[in-house]
Design a protein that fits this description.
By secondary structure, this protein is an alpha/beta fold. The protein has one domain (19-282): Dihydropteroate synthase-like (TIM Barrel). The chain is built from ten helices and ten strands. The protein has helices at 44-56, 78-95, 107-115, 133-140, 165-182, 202-210, 212-215, 230-236, 244-256, 268-282, and strands spanning 8-11, 14-17, 23-29, 61-65, 99-103, 120-123, 143-147, 190-193, 223-224, 262-265. The strands form two sheets. Strands 8-7-6-5-4-3-10-9 form an eight-stranded parallel beta sheet. It has a two-stranded antiparallel ribbon with strand order 1-2. Helix 3 (107-115) packs parallel to helix 4 (133-140) and helix 9 packs parallel to helix 10. The longest helix has 18 residues, at 78-95. The protein is globular, with a radius of gyration of 17 Å.
């Protein structure tokens, strides 16, 4: 049986108690084609300045990604991803003490990122995409976000099918945490991400969001990445640039139910305000 410290997240030489308040993880995509902000911060100097701006707005962690994982996205080469990510990790690590996460499924990108100052690896494949990833994470004692995805970004929305999406996702995490722990990763280093929009239909997404506490039963901090995603547009009719209200609504819903502990977002300042207000209100809850 895996023994963990309830909602403590260890990331190399740091750790967070995710029971005190939700962490805000700011998205910094350095790609030409990410679904919401592709191309905006493709230039390294703009990316660094945007990262520093998000820290000033209250981000606890920066999540740097050099490969788009939007539905239908094609993979990029190792060299391209390294050239996009590593210079920005190095520069931000010099200029801030904030935590740096790298969104990658390639073990060599993870290794060089951790050597350059990153503390967390966020892997959409759940550390299944590259056989060397598990040993890299274990060696560096990095924090890791293990995401659930059915298929690959290229194929994941073709025909996602589940027996029961809540039970299937929870079972994946139970099994994967045990496998990663057996392979040498500290269970307290693991956070989970149910992968909203990754191999899920609209019904799957909403079912998961309404029942995240059942996924939470695995006992690890839950990272929720819903910022500006397509399911909001189907409900509200808003385009990506107009989905802040929807993003905050989902975040606050999950915070009120205690079912998310890390919020992965584009709109840092507004989310930080929402987290502060949610925590202030919750402090007066009568049991």
């Amino acid at each position: 049986m895996v023994t963990t410290s309830p909602l403590v997240w260890k990331c190399a030489d740091r750790q967070y108690d995710c029971r005190s308040r939700a962490l805000v993880l700011g998205i910094l995509n350095v790609t030409p084609d990410s679904f919401s902000d592709g191309g905006q911060f493709f230039d390294s100097s703009h990316a660094v300045e945007r990262g520093l701006q998000m820290i000033a707005e209250g981000a606890d962690i920066l999540d740097i990604g050099g490969e788009s994982t939007r539905p239908g996205a094609d993979p990029v080469s190792l060299d391209d991803e390294l050239s996009r990510v590593i210079p920005i990790v190095r520069e931000l690590a010099k200029r801030t003490s904030a935590m740096i996460s790298v969104d990658t499924s390639k073990a060599e990108v993870a290794r060089q990122s951790l050597d350059s100052g990153a503390k967390i690896i966020n892997d959409v494949t759940g550390l299944c995409g590259d056989p060397a990833m598990v040993s890299v994470v274990a060696k560096y004692r990095a924090g890791v976000v293990v995401m659930h995805m059915q298929g690959t970004p290229t194929t994941m929305q073709a025909n996602p099918t589940y027996t029961n999406v809540i039970d299937d996702v929870a079972a994946f995490f139970t099994t994967r945490i045990r496998q990663l722990t057996d392979a040498g990763i500290d269970p307290d280093a693991i956070a989970i991400d149910p992968g909203i929009g990754f191999g899920k239909t609209q019904e799957h997404n909403l079912t998961l969001l309404a029942n995240l506490e059942r996924v939470n039963a695995v006992g690890r901090p839950l990272c929720l990445g819903v910022s500006r995603k397509g399911f909001m547009g189907l409900i509200t009719g808003r385009n990506r640039a107009e989905r802040l209200a929807g993003s905050l609504a989902v975040a606050c819903f999950s915070l009120a139910r205690g079912s998310s502990h890390i919020l992965r977002v584009h709109d840092v300042a507004a989310t930080v305000d929402a987290v502060k207000l949610s925590a202030a209100i919750d402090a007066f809850r009568e049991n």
